Amino acid sequence: MEHNMWQLLQIELYKIFRRPRTYIAFGASAALIIILQFGLKVDGSEYASFMLQSIGNFDVQGKLLNGYLVCFIILQLMLVHVPLLVTLIAADMISGEASHGTLRMLLSKPISRTSVVMAKFYATCVYTFLLLVWVAILALLVSLLIFGKSDLFLMRSEYIVIIRKDDIFWRYICAFCFAYISLVTVAALGFFLSSLADNSIGPIVATMSIIILFTVLGTLNIPVYKAINPYLFTTHMVVWKDFFDEKVNVSNEAIAGTIENLPSIIHSLLVLTVYIIVLMGATVWVVRKKDILS
Amino acid sequence: MSVFIVHLYAFANAQDVTVLVNKVKAKLDKVNDYTAAGVLKTDVAFIKAPVSNVLTYFKKPDHFRLVKKSGISVLPKGGISVNMGLVLNTDNFIALDAGESIINKVKTKVVKLLPNDENDNIVLSTLYIDAATLLIMKAITTTKDNGTFEVDMFYGKYAAYALPDKVLFSFNTKNYKLPKGLTLDFDEGTNPDEINKLKNKKGKIEIDYSSYIINKGVDDAVFK
């Protein structure tokens, strides 16, 4: 059985990386990151002054625009885009086969439908992982090479956080791991919608629409929508930023190596995991019950 | 007659404190420049900053800079008051006697210092001077642009140069602007009560100096 799963996974990975569409995501994310890095390299000082306008009473000294801050800015901007790129592949995994008429042939082999669905899901997870590693290399490592290292100066909604440069890298590792779970949630949603359709476009557009709708609902400060915010997966996807907030001691000194709101991160991770389990459970159930006609 | 005597007494007192301020100034003037290593602690409700090692540079007449080596430091504008050499860097002032006060168990002379120059950024300084040692124990400085700052100074092995081992710099954060999350943050806003709680506190900056290098020259490039 394990041998079968490994073979299935290899086949699914081959299918993913044979398609030109797969590389759109790598190209698009690289283009976006390089454009941002170029802009900040050329006009970074202007951006830094603009950023500091809101704390005019303070004199900030040091290398504000360093690789760590640039990476944070890039990740903030890519918050909406990377999930959309994952959708391009995930939402096509089952429905793509259906639209090409290969799903029936695939499921006629002596392998359980659950194994086929899970192999496709694992392959999507591998693709998502590679995309995230690509983004991490470009956004973090290349930014550090171009802009250098220094402390991370962040202006949260109502306060400033300064994190020492030797206390940042591990936070990015944690943030990328968290982002991976977020993206797998998006992949699971795409998968579920893909299991309901017989064409590629429908599930891709539907998944993107849900992400955009939930993101917009999450940013609206209207009480009726605030009530549903805790249940939207997009609300929990942004919690990676909490890795970049420190606890303080009684003298209000930031304590290196701490995270201000770890329970909130764990809660969000659990919510996202529940989303993944429910969506994948539903996908397996739909595919097992489905009358395959194409 | 009595009015004349009161005026004469006030004039004599003003003369006394001017002499005292000039003696303090002469002591401060022994330092042409210094480089000091210290530890910076920031206690401002809406700033989370780690304790960090800093270097401070001073050069006559009015150059002062605090540098956190390869890091980022945030200080309230008007850091001028961190250094008394800058407060007393002019002879063009009026000194008024404002009585006596006990600061850190030391009896001090309270002197109000008014600059004669209308364009001076400092509007008023209140100095608490230990007349015996000619050291400024505390200073309250009101500036045109950056409000009022309180500086408490604690002396040790560099007292002969009037350079403190520890400087405690306090300021009211009530009128300070809070950040707006311009790192393209999509956070939810904090409620207004929380914001006011953060703002209605005194901010404190503490620098504990471990060593000074005095009168050995400081490159002008440091201040650019």
Task: Please indicate the count of domains of chain A.
Answer: 1
Count the DSSP helices of chain B.
3
Distance, first to last CA of chain B: 58 Å
Shape summary of chain A? elongated
Taken in chain order, the helices and strands of chain B follow as: HEEEEEHEEEEEEHE
Sheet having the most strands of chain A: 2 strands, antiparallel
Low-confidence stretches of chain B: 182-187
Kindly state the number of beta strands of chain A.
3
Q: What topology, given as strand order, has the largest sheet of chain A?
A: 2-3
* Structural class by sheet pairing and helices of chain A: mainly alpha
Question: What is the CA-based Rg of chain A, rounded?
Answer: 21 Å
- Tell the overall outline of chain B: globular
Which structural traits does this protein have?
heterodimer; A: 294 residues; mainly alpha; two-stranded antiparallel sheet; 3 strands; elongated; B: 224 residues; alpha+beta; outer membrane lipoprotein receptor (LolB), chain A; ten-stranded antiparallel sheet; 3 helices
Structure report:
The complex is a heterodimer of chains A (294) and B (224). Chain A starts with a helix and ends in a 5-residue tail after the last helix. Chain A has helices at 2-18, 20-52, 67-77, 81-90, 95-100, 103-107, 113-147, 169-196, 201-219, 223-226, 233-237, 262-289, and strands at residues 58-61, 152-155, 160-163. The mean pLDDT of chain A is 90. Chain A has one domain (2-289). In chain A, strands 2-3 form a two-stranded antiparallel ribbon. Chain A has twelve helices and three strands; from the N terminus they run ααβαααααββααααα. In chain A, helix 3 runs antiparallel to helix 7 and helix 4 packs across helix 8. By secondary structure, chain A is mainly alpha-helical. Chain B is an alpha+beta fold. Chain B has one domain: outer membrane lipoprotein receptor (LolB), chain A (Clam), CATH 2.50.20. In chain B, 17% of the residues lie in helices and 44% in strands. Chain B contains three helices and twelve strands, in the order H-E-E-E-E-E-H-E-E-E-E-E-E-H-E. Chain B has helices spanning 2-28, 84-87, 192-199, and strands at 33-43, 47-48, 52-59, 63-68, 73-76, 93-103, 106-115, 122-130, 135-143, 147-154, 166-172, 202-214. Chain B has a ten-stranded antiparallel β-sheet. In chain B, a hairpin with a 4-residue loop joins strand 8 and strand 9. Chain B is globular and about 45 Å long. The N and C termini of chain B lie far apart (58 Å). Chains A and B meet through strand 1, helix 3, strand 2 and strand 3 of A and strand 1, strand 2, strand 4, strand 5 and helix 3 of B. Strand 1 (58-61) of chain A pairs antiparallel with strand 5 of chain B, so a sheet runs across the interface.
